[in-house]
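Quick one before lunch.
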Amino acid sequence: MRSAVLLACLLALVAARPSERPNLHGAQVLRTVPHSPSQVHYLHGLLRQGHYDFWREPRALGQPVDIMAKAWQLPVLKATLDGLHLKYSVMISNVAQLVRETVPRHDGPRAMDWTSYHDYDEINDWLDELAATYPSLCSVEDVGTSYEGRTMKLLTIGTGDASNPGIFIDGGIHAREWIAPATVTYMVNELVTKSDTYADILAAVNFYVMPAINPDGYAYTFTDERLWRKTRSHQDGVICVGVDPNRNWGFHWGEGGTSDSPCSDIYCGPEPFSEVEMRVVRDQITRLGSAVSAYLTFHSYSQLWMYPWGYGYDLPDDWEDLDALAQDAVTALTAVHGTIYEIGSSANTIYVAAGGSDDWAKGVGGVKYSYTVELRDTGSYGFLLPPEQIIPTGEETFEALLVYARFFQNGGT
Ligand SMILES: [Zn+2]
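Model of the zinc ion complex:
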C-alpha cells in the first residue's frame, strides 16, 4: 500500500515536469542511426510519447536521429537504445554549458548586431528604427498581437510598385531555432543598408519580412527555457502549454507526423489555426495575394532546402520548377563557405509532417515557390549554434535569397 502511494507521488512528479523549468544539468544529446524499418518505427513511437526532446526526428533508414535526454533520463534512454540494438554516440555532452555560452549577456536592451543573438523586443525596435532611417526603402506595419500581447510587425522592403513580384520571408516559427531570426534580420540588413548595390533588385522585387513569428515562444527561450519549441497558449483543463505552430496550418491539418497530445512537441493544436500568431501570418499572405511569388520560411537545423509537400510523399505538379530554383539557390549558398545542403520535398527529405506553413502557402495561399529552409548546422551544436556562426550563415543564405530575387527580377514566373 505504502509503495503504491509512493509510486503515485512519483508519477505525479513526472506528470508535473512539463510545466517546470527543466534542469539541463547533465543533459546530453545522443545521436543514433536506424538501420531497419522496425527501428525507425520504434523511434517514431518514442517521439510520439513525448518523454524525450527529439532535436532531429526519425527520417529514413541511415539518417541520424538526435535525442536530448536530461540527466535522470539518460540511463533509461541508453538502455532503450541498447534493447533495440541501436548504436549511439554522444553528440552534445554538456547541453547546459552550451546554453550558457550562446545566451547573450543582458543588462537592458542592446542595439542590433549579428555577433550575438537578440530577443524579441530588440528585433522589433530595430524594425521600427529601419523604417524610420530608410523611409524611401522600407516601411513597417503592426499586423497583429500574439497570445501574450506582443506586437507582430511586417517589414516591407522595395522601391518599385506594390504589384511587383514579392518574396515573403519569415523565421522563428519554432522558438528555439535562434539562427532563423538572426539570419532573416541579417539578410534584411544587407538589403537595406547596401541598397545602392541592390538598387535594381529593390526596384523590381518587394520583400515582406516577419523575422520572428512565434513571439511568445521566442521570448520564453530568452527568459525561461532555452529549448522551448512551441507557442505559449493555454487551454482550459490542459497542463501542457503550447502548440507546434508548424503543425497548426489549415491544409491537411492533423494528418501524418503530428500529435493530438497537448504535451507533445508536435501537437497540432485543438483545431487548424488555433494559434493567433499563425492566423496573423496567414492573413498577411492572404492580403498580399498575387503579390507574393515566393514564400521562404527559415528553421534550423540540418541544412536542408525543401519544397512541398510535407503532408505526404506526393509531389506538386510543378515540382521541377521549385526544384530547379532550389538547386540554383543552394549552388550559390555553397559557393560562399562550402556549406552543403540537401534539396528535396519535405516528406521525402525529412519526414511526413502535415500542417506546415509552406504546404499551406502553396496549397491554399497560391504561392507557387514555397520553401522550408533548415539552416546550419548538421548537429554538432544543433539549436545551440554559437553566435560566431550568425554572420557566415547570413552571408551564404543571403546569396541564395539573391538567386530568388534575380529570378523574379528577370521575369521568372
Ligand atoms: Zn523548426
